Batch of 2 targets.
Target 1
Amino acid sequence: MKDILTTTFLIALLSASIRLTVPILFAALGGMYSELSGVSNIGLEGIMLIGAFTGVVGSYYTGSYWMGALMSVVFGILIAALFAFVTVKIKINQIVSGVAINLLAVGLTSFFLERYLE
Amino acid sequence: MHKERDIKRKGYVSPSSKALAIGIPFVSVMLALLLGSILLILIDVNPLEAYKYLIFGNFTSVYNISEIFVKATPIILTGLAFTFSYRTGLFNIGADGQMFAGAIAAVFFGLKTGHLSPFISIPICLIGAIIAGAIWGLIPGLLKGIFGSSEIITTIMFNYIALYLVSYVVDKPLREALGFYPQTDLIGENAFLPYIIPNTRLHIGFIVAILLAIVVYLILWKTPFGYRLRAVGYNPDGAEYSGISIKKSIIISLAISGALAGVAGFTEISGIHHRLLDNFSRNVGFDGIAAALLGNTNPIGVITASILLGMLQTGANAMQRGVGIPANIVSIIQALIILLVLVGNKLRPQIEMRLVKKQEAE
């Protein structure tokens, strides 16, 4: 036990935990916002996927990760706006539309990935 | 004014409402294809040529045509599973997990009884899959019935439990004797489902799915038990007031729904793969949801919609070979179809009202 708990190991463990916390924390914050306003956002995973994809595309083509982050924010808002429109305005079932958003995101990202980034 | 009230009352079916029941899914499919064609234009592909492959690319040989029904079989079953719970007012998103549970049971019994006569082995696999799927649906049902926890969340979580259970089963307890790949040995040959057409993969699981669709129709619409379930789905408070136990209906409905999805696992294992693989037939559960919604959650509609989805999925492969378009475009089209059908169904009263007003004006 003693030889595992070295400083190097602990630092690596803690930094890895914090690194892995970031995506979960962001998703949880997003979920909290919609949950507090009464919408169960099952589509978070799809929105994250779109954000990840557009982030990569943005930073690849502009060479700046800030532009990538901006791209993912913009496209995240766009796909969430679609979700919000169908669930809040037209009032279709939140869960089913969330599942559909996930499916849409999987399709869109893999479709454009095969076409543009290979 | 009277007419508007008539339409809101349940049971009144105007001629336009019947047309809308078919019209909304049809228009949704067309719109989804139209939106998909925008994507195709974005990547410099002629959408007409692509859709030619998507729709007619299958009709080149008996094998390719039979492949449509092979793809449709598990979708029909998971679609029926969603339909059954939906009619009781429940969203069973866990058809994937229930299918995996059924598949584990089918493989287990297929390995143990595969050397016996097919008349013993196949029914044992089927019953095992039904029971495993039913248990996978029963647990969320109990949680919902007793503690009132959302069946949507619990069934989604049960998907992950079943998914990783499959990974575990193929990795350790039932790993093939050679031990190379994470998969089980082939089940005994006598547990294979017989093929309907020789030299194709079309197995009698398709007939089983059609028969189960008829059974679901008879249970839901022709028996007092089904009437009670639909009453709970239509108006839980009213149902409870007239002496129907909501808790019991919820638990039974989710268990039956799980059993139907479990059969999908059985047909996939005994009919196609003949062994359990990691990650086999993913997303069939969600395809089932799409098929059920597209088919207005009635069994005949589910069969039609499943065959349509099977056609799109096999057509997508033909399209990928023919014009080099990523087959993933089908997921996009499918997601759009789900969204558009749901939006159409929500807007349906308004469309009906407008049609009636038009008729009155004439």
Target 2
Amino acid sequence: MEDVLNEALSPEKAAASGNAALDAALDETGVIRAVQNGDRDAFERLVRAYDKDVLRLAMNLTRSAEDARDIYQEAFLKAYRNIGSFRFECSFYTWIYRIVTNVCLDTLRRRKVRAEEPAVVQTPDGPLDRISSAEEDRPLGDPERQVLNRQLEKRIGAALEGLTPRERMVFELRHYQGMRLTKIGEITGTSEEAARNCLFRATRKMRSVLGDLA
Amino acid sequence: MNCQDFHDLIALYHYGELAAEDEERLEHHVDGCAVCRAEEGRMRAIAQALDARAMAPEAPLVAECRRDLMDAVLASRPPALGWDRLRSVFPSFANPVAGLRQLAFAAGLVGLGFLAARIPFHSSIRGGRAVLPESTNVIGSSIVPPPGETFSNVRSVQPDPASGRVQIGLEETRRHFVSGSLADAAIQKLLLTAAGDETNPGLRVESIGILKDYPGSREVRQALLEALKHDPNPSVRLKAIEGLKSFAAQADIRQALARALVSDTNQGVRVQVIEVLTEHPDDSLVGVFQNLVHLEHNNYVRLRCQEALRHMNASEGTF
């Protein structure tokens, strides 16, 4: 029963269907009010509706399951602590993504400043390529990923590292999360035009580094 | 628009973010321009390469994240309500007379509930076991269950063809209720026993939750300390920390808390420990916090350590 509800609460499902039953299940307002009144189970239901997308966003941005876990934890805890101030002036989807993208941006900025996340780190067993090892963590059986040249992987990683945190975020939301620029502007607190310029700059940088791929 | 303008728009075209008329003009241009066609091909190739490296969280990771989050939520305070929300929950703030009426009504309901609880109620089956109410008497049988709620399991059945009777072996567990003040040594002893019941984490949470408010005796203090150190259930450990708060200035308690901060696997517990320790700033803990700032994997816990160091006017680094 809970799985059915969770499935129905998924924003992807909701977007894909105009089904009245799903719309009824999507009555988040009641769930959010319950959380505001201290119902922790209701909060878990909200989390389950969004957390896979949040984790996917964090993993693709940081290329690290550990960092993604931290982002997940920090973002949802912030949401929990501040849900009392949620006034239903925007959708919960937009609100939670604002929190998540801010936490992600902070993480990316910290990385840039500290420069402590090099592609190759020293371990007791010798140098370890974080990008390559991240790839090894993935499930087997995806031939497309297996044939992906390691050199190409590094080049793409380097190209993405060349983006500013904000460009990276906009690019991630558009390319991997499939969000429209209007929504991205709303989430990142800028205009659609600013998000468009950001995407433009990001793709221009990517193309200049990876232009010989075709 | 010249060729360079179209060239620049190819990425936005790829993501379907061009206005319809711009899209049409670009398509028309690309049809006749080999350079832009090649650029569009490059954009597609880049997009495919990016798609191939997309990461998706595995189910165990999602489950682990959810568990950690809900542990931390359990350890944190309920969400803060804004003033408007508070007023909507307690509208009587704005109308004291209506508020008094509601208060009287609520008190009436509580009284009714209290009276209802005095009325005995017996169900025939509880928890999958036969329940024989105290008045039960099996006619013509030698079994007369003792008074009080009795949970019985049938353990053996022995027919006696000669007499036509059956001998049934029952295993009975009687539930007694005792009540008393926490100052009562017998009550405390029962609670301490319950707090150590390895088979029932719920019972341990409840017991430690009660004991934590009366940590005066040496035994209770010791039970809280043991729960913090060894109880496998984070909720029990959190209750124990609450109980140990008032002893946080004592050396052995601080040592146990510091150990929990370094080794407890639950971040909710670690955060709670930081809160308790920072209530009594102590220079000997600066090193522990500084180490954690560098070693702690969880961003939030690390953040709290940094706050604690700031609170203690200490630097984050070890020089």
